[in-house]
Amino acid sequence: MADDRVALAHLPTPLEPMDRLAAEIGLPPGTLWVKRDDCTGLAGGGNKVRKLEYLCAEAIAGGCDTLVTGGGRQSNHVRITAAAANRLGLACTVVLAGGRPSHPTGNVVLDYLLGADIVWAEDDGYYATEAAIEAARDRLRVEGRRPYAMPIGGASVTGALGYVRAADELAAQLPDVAVVVTADGSGGTHAGLVAGLGDHRRVLGVDVGTRPDLGERVPEKATEVAERAGRPSPTGDLRLDRDRFGAGYGAPTDACREALDLAARCEGLVLDPVYTGKAMAGLLAAVRDGRITPGEQVVFLHTGGLPALFAHAYAAWIAAGVGRVDQRQGG
Hints:
By secondary structure, the chain is α/β, with parallel strands linked by helices. The protein is about 40% helix and about 15% strand.
């Protein structure tokens, strides 16, 4: 595929074995791996850096001067977009849903530090946030700016190209990978991996409760991304676990807490309660119910998200052990 990107990420990211965790959950040694996309480098790293390499290249090619995007209050994509804008000398306007916090914590602290122009939106629905991003773009145009708008999570065809490239990178590191497990927020990472690996059966997405129509959008996007990348249309059926997000996006669950504890105490691997913790809970469930079988080469995609652990509500939840916190993401 054409590699129209600006270099922002530290690549390739490491692929590391998780043999102690494998033993804990009944998998043979040498069959469970973690792809460390939390190590992409920019402003704390995470999967969004790969997407922004392509999105920012498109913005610059189009003569844009301002990146515009949005997400939930603890959005990793917003944080990294603000950092990418600074790296490239662009302005950045972001929409954060759920209202202004009384005391900023986690990603919000970094959004302030990075100097993004923040638009606070009370409605935290997925498509309400998308509409607010479009409204911010339109306002900037009226003001004489040249904005480049990105959807939540950078989940456009252009953004997903970053995960076609990641799939190629992973296949070079582990040619017999059977399944990649990833958190599914807006669906772009899942779609890009499917387009790159060529088969829906090789990617298990774990819905974290961001997007209500994820089951329809991922296959649609995977086909579009494969076409853009010059790859065959993906085969197989979508694999999507929609049973791990609990009361909704950002709401902690006991299964997520178990996953955080196992990863930390078996491997020294720190996950977050919004995305990767729930993705790991999905991996554990798939092993326990036989959807992942012993002997398969399984890769857990660590998409980052560490700053959310320091949101007030999550920090209290971790300190207290398994328990209840406010169902909305912390400030």
